[in-house]
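To whoever is covering the structure queue this week,

Two jobs came back overnight. Logging them here so there's a record in the thread.

Job A:
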Amino acid sequence: MTTVDLSRTELEEAGAVLAAESGRFASFGWMRGTSGNLSTVVSRDPLRLVVTASGHDKGELGPSDVVLVDGSGAALDGGTPSAEAELHARVAALTGAGAVVHVHTVASVAMGRRKPGGIVFKDLEMLKGVGQPAHDTEVTLPVIANSQDMKELGDRLAQARDPRMPAVVVAGHGLYVWGATPRQARHHTEVVEWLLEFALTQG
């Protein structure tokens, strides 16, 4: 699929999926106001993603509130994607993910400050939700320093990521999570956020 192969109907179909996911996350308080962004991959060669548009209330997105971007996060259809579209594209290229979620949760910011070297989880049944054994295994959720330069942030993510954990915390900013599909990315996001909320209660 190339850029000309993605019709307006197909773009809006992808947008409808992202709008539904965004509304779900916003209802949890994870995408307050215009914060956060979502993407889904619509082509691998060349890499193309549909990304939520910049400046929109994430609880009120419609199917047309998305932008088609290339592998560098640049808009291909004249819209204005999230400023973090470049990082979404980097994650998709690096991990093979089909969808990326970025939410601003209190637990991710708080735990990023508490554990700047990474957040360790073990002996928790919820680890099964990210494909890991519930017991006798330690899994670390990486924490990386924030940057307004998406290339620099992407480099930090590439260096720190653990293939066993489909997520990273960006210190002082929020949580990036990915999956093979928007549905799996949603499930991973909900599981990782549960783990963070639990860790926050442990002092």
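Job B:
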Amino acid sequence: MNDLHVRPATEADLATLVRLRDAAARWMLAHGITGQWRPGELDEDHFRQVMARGEVWLAEAGGRGVGAWELWWEDEAAWGPQPSVAGYVHRLMVDRSTAAPGTGRLLLEAAERRVAEAGRIRVCLDCLAGNAQLNAYYRDAGYRVVGHKEGKAQPGGAPPKSFTLLEKELSRPTAPGTSRHTD
């Protein structure tokens, strides 16, 4: 796992991002997780648009893309108007055929570090309400349920879905000689 490298995605990575998203969607379907992602649902233009208003990060191991996520700086569709204190993680995806176990958690931690580096104090995400396994995964990673969003619009004209809203407070850096704490 020590060869995992995370970097901002570029235009040259668009096909890799689509491949990762479709592989994650196929894995979900093969494991009985329906109603969340479908292969072919998002194309290169989706990721290009996210890069124009947010960030897309790519994880590589052995020179191959093994995971990615989107980082938004606002998400009014799910969270409504909010002060600029959070980063919003979307589409955390791992290619389970090539990534080592634990890669998803490492990517989530990298997203949390990026949010902290941007001076934000909270990481927010939404998770399909009906996906109990994924909701538990995020709770086990230290996220707490703070609400629900019914009928959230989906990219590509897909039918609206209901989501669990989760957040995690980040530790704030403190002055030398003092302890770290979470507000």
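Note for Job B: Residues 23 and 61 are 16 Å apart (CA to CA).

Please reply-all if you pick these up so we don't duplicate work.
Q.
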